[in-house]
Amino acid sequence: MLALLRLIGLVLAIELIFYFLLSVYIRSTRREALEKEWDRRHPDRAGHSAERREFVRRSMVGFGKTLRARLVALVLVLPLVTIVVIIVLVNYE
What we know:
It contains two helices and no strands. It is mainly α. The chain has one domain.
C-alpha cells in the first residue's frame, strides 16, 4: 500500500510539471494567434501597440478558464485514474 501511495505521489508530481509546461505552451500559441489576427485585421496599426496589447488581454480572459478545465481533466485526472484502475484490476482479481 505504501508503494502505491509513493507511485501516486511521483506520478502526480510529474503530471504537475507537464500541466505547467503544457499550459504555458498553449497560452503562448493562443497569444501569438491573437497577435497575428490583430495584425491581419489592422494592417495600418500592425506591430506592438497599446491597442494590440489590450485586444490580446481581453481575448485571453475567457481562454484561461476553459484551458484550465480541459488540462486538469486531460493531464492530471485521466492518467492517475487509469494507473489506479490498472493496478486494482491486476492485483485484486
